[in-house]
Amino acid sequence: MRPKPQGPLNIKLLILGVTLAFLLLFILRSNFSSSSDQSTSQTVRSRDSDCSSSCTKLPSSLSHALVHYTTSSITPQQTQKEISVSAKVLQQKSPCNFLVFGLGHDSLMWSALNYGGRTVFLEEDESWIQQIKRRFPMLDSYHVVYDSKVNQADTLMEMAKGEECTSIGDARHSMCQLALKGLPKEVYETKWDVIMVDAPTGYYDEAPGRMTAIYTAGMIARNREDGDTDVFVHDVNREVEDKFSKAFLCEGYMKKQEGRLRHFNIPSHRDGSERPFCPN
Known about the structure:
This protein is α/β, with parallel strands linked by helices. It is 41% helix and 14% strand. It is built from ten helices and seven strands. It has a seven-stranded mixed β-sheet, sandwiched between helices. Helix 1 packs antiparallel against helix 3 and helix 1 runs parallel beside helix 4. It is globular.
């Protein structure tokens, strides 16, 4: 989703701080590993004689993020506190499989915070994908098409009351009209640990709405064989995001709301526990 430019200083400082903290952890961990089998004196002599064999090189994804957010006047749309909620979960789970509905100014940050994991972005605007790819070719993004519009939300909510929309299974074969069936194959076949819904556009009546993205994110989480998935929905101050996240990600699974961001933790519904669609 092509974002609206914003530039609050506190968000930039947060991104830099998180990235630098991750960098420090990376260096400390690498240095600890390289020295665990040698004495301190041997390590020092090795570094003096041949730094290339013991010095840690900054991963390219982190260096790109540092340079970008240091020099750019455009920062992510989420606030500092909102970003902190997702960053905390990624800190615990990364490297992991991270699916993001949307491609924007925060994408490089999400990819860097999941360093070593798989981060995939789904974007509705094909020209925007090409722009981002020219600047950050390392980001893994796919073009997707959303057929439903914001002004169809009430109708879709009413239609979703049938059993076909609470039946657990592969979204590609679902009879529910809220299920996205045309996503890339890997979206359905990957066990996603974290999902962020921050697209499609959704801010005017004729725009593609997030109804199907929210529903599909919840079904992907429920359909994993075991474990759980952390699902985030942004812009819950808007009616569609508010109602659909509560209905299909379930208030009983909601862990936290910070500003316009909601965090849900959805367990597998295929692990033999026979859970109801939403907890009672």
